[in-house]
Design a protein that fits this description.
Number of domains: 2
Radius of gyration: 21 Å
Strand content: 25-35%
Oligomer: single chain
Shape: globular
CATH topology of the largest domain: FAD/NAD(P)-binding domain
Length: 353
């Protein structure tokens, strides 16, 4: 016999920034909302939120997220890029109209946004698996963990790159570049001596890398490549050792965490359908070179919440079509930027360009 998970207006699958922010907005508007999140151990890693994100943060009413004493965001001074042949480009965030970017510790940010969603009425539940999906009347039945049944009027797929729900109801990935990313966190005196938090980007024949230090005294170094040879710890450490010998080969630094992930750029062939939509990385995943992944979560979640509300109140299919177009236009603009950067690097393989 199935256990009752509950009946909800909206079921959000995934509790990253896009999922939690969408759930928060819908809960604030009075929709009964639940979030289910796969129970996995979080990996402490650093990302950068560019200055352009400030508009979406303000629109979400989240300025306190930046200025609170326990904020998961810390100032980032800018980006220094080394693009081969001795070319160095400096992007000082203080010169931007929004005058500031942020270093983000993702596990802390995710926890803070989950807490905000729950504080506005969303129900949060960790699960092991989604086992069955079926339609009913004007909604869905979702069975998780073998025997827990949720019913809902609308599903938000915020499951990240797996697009767990969308792909099971027929959406397909359109991949433009197949990339892998491997990262290592370093800790120790060599990291403590870095000083300001700044994003450093370097190009290499096999791809590119970036490093960023966090005020909590660790540095994340990530290698992005089209080669699958970096998909184990030994090969990743060897590759990063050539790029960052001051950390890999130093007694003043040690390895803390290792992360491997799919960094491919893709968009679903449709990001919305009757009684569902995908948001954030579940709808469209951006190449890391664009620095758009986290920024897109903040902006697209607000559009997703408005679209869902319009559909639930008025069953407006045009809202779903408009949402699909907005996500597709944003992704296409970002992807053209990706191509512009990659095509300038003569030393890179065709698979990167």
């Amino acid at each position: 016999m199935l256990a009752e998970g509950g009946h909800f207006d909206v079921l959000v699958i995934g509790a990253g920034p896009a999922g939690s922010l969408t759930a928060r907005a819908l809960s604030m508007w009075g929709f009964k909302t639940a979030i289910v999140q796969k129970d996995v151990e979080p990996v402490k890693f650093t990302e950068v939120l560019p200055p352009s994100s400030m508009r979406a943060i303000c629109a979400q009413g989240l300025v306190n997220l930046i200025h609170s004493s326990h904020s998961p965001l810390s100032p980032c001074s800018g980006v220094t890029s080394h693009w081969g042949e001795g070319r160095i480009y400096e992007d000082d965030f203080i010169r931007r109209p929004e005058s500031g970017g942020w270093v983000v510790e993702r596990t802390a940010l995710d926890a803070e946004l989950q807490s905000l969603a729950v504080s506005h009425g969303a129900i949060y539940r960790k699960i092991q698996s989604i086992d069955h999906i079926e339609t009913y009347e004007n909604g869905w039945i979702i069975i998780v963990d073998d025997d827990v049944s949720f019913t809902c009027r609308f599903v938000i797929d915020a499951s990240g790159r797996p697009s767990t729900f969308a792909r099971r109801v027929g959406a397909k990935r359109q991949v433009t570049s197949k990339l892998f990313a491997g990262g290592i966190n370093f800790v120790g005196q060599a990291v403590d001596d870095i000083g300001e938090s700044r994003l450093f980007v370097k190009s290499h024949p096999e791809g590119w890398s970036y490093s960023i230090s966090h005020p909590e005294h660790y540095l994340s170094a990530v290698l992005v490549s089209s080669s699958s040879s970096i998909k184990n710890k030994a090969s990743l450490e060897k590759a990063l050792g050539k790029i960052y010998p001051q950390y890999v080969d130093s007694e003043a630094a040690s390895l803390d965490r290792v992360l491997f992930t799919d960094a491919s750029s893709f968009i679903l062939d449709h990001v919305a359908g009757e009684n569902w939509l995908a948001v954030g990385d579940a709808a469209a995943s951006f190449d890391p070179i664009t620095s758009q992944g986290l920024a897109n979560a903040f902006s697209s979640s607000l559009i997703a919440a408005h679209t869902c509300r319009e559909f639930l109140l008025n069953r407006n299919f045009l809202a779903l079509e408009a949402y699909d177009k907005a996500i597709r236009d944003t992704w296409s603009f970002s992807d053209s930027g990706r191509l512009h950067v990659y095509q300038q690097q003569d030393q890179w393989t065709e698979s990167l360009r």
